[in-house]
Amino acid sequence: MRTRALGRSGVNVSEVALGTWGLGANGYGPIDSARVEATVQRALESGVTTFDVAPSWGTIEHTVATVVGARRDEVQYVTRANSVMALRVVESCETSLRNLKTDHLDVLLLNHPPETEVNNETLTQALVTLKSAGKIRAWGVSTSKSSVARAALDRGVDVLCVPHNVLASDLLMDIAPDLALRETGVLAHSPLAYGLLADAWKRDHVFGTQDHRRRRWTSEGLNERLRHVEALRFLVHGSTKSLADAAIKFVLADSAVGSCIVGARSPAQIAEAALLANPPYLDDEDLVR
Q1: CB count, 10 Å around CB of 251?
Q2: What's the predicted TM-score (pTM) here?
């Protein structure tokens, strides 16, 4: 698996990261612990070294730490703090350090904070202090709002985590000049648009009762999005074998992106994503970035 620098942060990340919200927080419905562990294990075997976790996502941090074991120095932990209170952010960091059995986190993200809190000097100082103490290597913000992203850039974040895919690229395009100027690292989540670009559904698909997509999209909304996906079929040709292949290539074609966070829920899914990002028939010089 190729790696990329995460902006000026000093952290190098694998081009594909394993996003664990669906594994740990059951956002797509229940999943058994054996499958969770097998998915993390397959990620490592496939060359994935970057893991997106959070202490609030069930026991996923414990699972990742168990699977990684003595290979801690080979991986990067990106974890999230849901609170915007400075003290709680510090507590969240300490919890993740314990859960992951490590003395430092590679990236600590504020998870979808409001703009007012991004501008909170006390909160920013708490993160800077954690970094100075060596407990985190970099800090940043995960957001889907342009205004919050810009506020975070103004506060000097090392990393931004934003949704980015072929169906939704406006946010990253909007802030691209500022990212380049400040050398801010980018983690791109939702590269497959919550599964839309995996090209596995037909019209009127019904999600399980505990699947967040059942609440996210009405039946009409899903069908409209599937029409948008169908319009992208022209991207599948030559060495691009599927829409998922095109989707991963689209995200990684942006040089601002350090890693593409794939929310795989099975060993096969993360293995496929890793293979799409690093096909064995291409050498580095064959890739156009």
Answers
A1: 26
A2: 0.93
Compute the distance between CA of residue 84 and CA of residue 80 in angstroms, rounded to an integer.
11
Q: Give the pair of three-digit tokens for residue 237.
A: 């040709």
Neighbour tally for 50: CB within 10 Å:
29
Report d(CA 50, CA 53) in Å as an integer: 10
Q: What sign does the CA torsion over 207, 44, 281, 172 have?
A: positive
From CA 269, how far away is CA 112, in angstroms rounded? 26
Rounded-to-5 percentages of helix, strand, coil across the chain = 45, 20, 35
The token duo for 274 is 């890793």
Cα distance between residue 206 and residue 271, in whole Å: 26
**pLDDT tens sequence across 155-182:** 999 999 999 999 999 999 999 999 999 9
CA distance 32 to 46: 21
Are 3 and 14 in contact by the 8 Å Cβ rule? The answer is yes
Burial state string for 108-120 with b = 16 or more CB within 10 A and e = fewer than 16: bbbbebeeebbeb
Give the separation between CA 145 and CA 70, rounded to whole angstroms.
38
